[in-house]
Write a structure and sequence with these properties.
Helix content: 25-40%
Order of helices and strands: HEEEEEEHEEEEHHEHEEHEHHHEEHHE
Number of domains: 2
Distance between the termini: 31 Å
Number of strands: 17
Largest sheet: 9 strands, mixed
Number of helices: 11
Structural class: alpha/beta
CATH architecture of the largest domain: 3-Layer(aba) Sandwich
Radius of gyration: 22 Å
CATH topology of the largest domain: QueA-like
């Protein structure tokens, strides 16, 4: 927090007190529910759109099948998807001692842009989670594959540049001129969620990916989109609903539990996102409902207002801080904020807004863009449960009690829901 108006200790203390009071006082244990292992879907259903669908509107839950989703959507709405693509970001390396080290790529460091890093043909460095990290000293690791295999010709190595607990900056080097994206496809595994308690299998290569995945960068799937088939998408467009994409790369932080009892002490991870100027204009001018597919799309869309505020007040967009929505009352309309972004991009002949967000959406949040949400059922005591509660006006237990008592499957490969925002 930067204190621009408080100069003395007393004034600064008073500002801190006011700021503290504006952050919602939320105890994470109030967002627990009984999720047993048998309710967690360990595998996807044979058909993507055969999952169950819970519809929650005006305080009343009911159920259908996901392929019927278009029947419950308002005509001529705008539907926004996250077209990020999961990369096979988990690799296994071998020390000369025989110790196995797992390296899980999180985000690029050098080059820092995803596309540029994936296009690297000799060397790049990434921030990574390192399994068995205490056994990795200063030696260079070699990719764990048979010496006579085709992969051995790549001579993929990993060197630890810096360490911070279980994470570190790892430099990868390889031979043969292949792009790093190709190296990952050959050497990496799809990083399925840890709560599935199993190894990655062949089915995950197809099904832990949306049909419309396009931009490489995520280490976790935007799972609300896993249910969509071409038939469902065609039926949606047949209703006059326009479909658009944003791109938010989902980080490993999506699996991190809230360890602090008070949510105000939980640090949110940064996730990069991209929104086209065309969608910004559509959002500014549309007088129709906005449907977000997944919590990642919600967080992206709702971050736009605060990006616009930073342009209005500081002349340039800044990453969205975790508690920005709760710091103060903002005098600007949503249209003014979107206008500011559009004007900023047009003045620089830019076609996309590229930014990062740490926004946390909790009860008390003011939604400015999203009216309906398609989402799966999330872990107890998670930031995503807080987002759901905020969206439905606090009545999340009605939804989850219904799902638990009606045989719904939970988490990434589980069933889906369509939620109408509480007004």
């Amino acid at each position: 927090m930067i204190f621009t108006h408080a100069h003395g200790a007393a004034e600064r203390y008073e500002y801190l007190i006011i700021f503290a009071h504006m952050i919602p006082d939320i105890k994470i244990e109030d967002y627990a529910y009984p999720l047993t292992d048998d309710r967690i879907a360990k595998y996807p259903l044979p058909q993507r759109d055969a999952s169950k669908l819970l519809i929650y509107k005006d305080g009343v839950p009911r159920e259908s099948i996901f392929r019927n989703l278009p029947d419950f959507l308002p005509d001529n709405a705008l539907m926004v998807f996250n077209d990020t693509k999961v990369v096979p970001a988990r690799m296994h390396f071998l020390r000369e001692t025989g110790a196995h080290i797992e390296i899980f790529c999180l985000e690029p460091v050098e080059p820092a842009e995803y596309n540029t890093s994936f296009a690297s043909t000799r060397m790049c460095s990434w921030k990574c989670v390192i399994g068995n990290s205490k056994r990795w000293k200063d030696d260079i690791l070699h990719y764990d594959c048979p010496a006579d295999s085709a992969l051995a010709a790549m001579n993929l190595t990993a060197r630890l540049l810096s360490r911070d607990g279980q994470t570190g900056i790892v430099e990868f080097a390889w031979e043969g001129g292949e792009a790093f994206s190709r190296v990952l496809e050959e050497c990496g595994q799809v990083p399925i969620p840890p709560y599935l308690n199993r190894e990655t299998e062949a089915i995950d290569l197809e099904r832990y990916q949306t049909l419309y995945a396009h931009v490489r960068g995520s280490v976790a799937a935007p799972t609300a989109g896993l249910h969509f088939t071409e038939e469902v998408l065609e039926a949606i467009r047949a209703k006059g609903i326009e479909t658009q994409n944003v791109c938010l790369h989902v980080g490993a932080g999506t699996f991190l539990p809230v360890k602090s009892s008070n949510v105000s002490e939980h640090p949110m991870h940064r996730e990069p996102f991209v929104v086209s100027i065309g969608l910004l204009r559509e959002l500014r001018d549309a007088l129709r409902p906005c449907i977000a597919v997944g919590t990642t799309s919600v967080r992206t869309l709702e971050s736009l207002y605060y990006a616009g505020v930073s342009i209005i007040e500081k002349g340039a967009p800044e990453d969205i801080a975790q508690w920005a929505p709760y710091e103060r009352e903002y005098p600007y309309s949503t249209r003014e904020a979107l206008d500011a972004i559009i004007d900023y991009l047009e003045a620089r002949d830019l076609q996309e807004l590229k930014l990062g967000t740490r926004i946390i959406i909790v009860p008390g949040f003011r939604f400015r863009l999203v009216d309906l949400m398609v989402t799966n059922f999330h872990q107890p005591e998670s930031t995503l449960i807080l987002l759901i509660s905020a969206f439905v006006g606090g009545d999340w237990r009605t939804i989850y009690d219904y799902a638990l008592s009606h045989g719904f499957r939970f988490l990434s490969y589980g069933d889906s829901s369509l939620l109408f925002r509480h007004c």
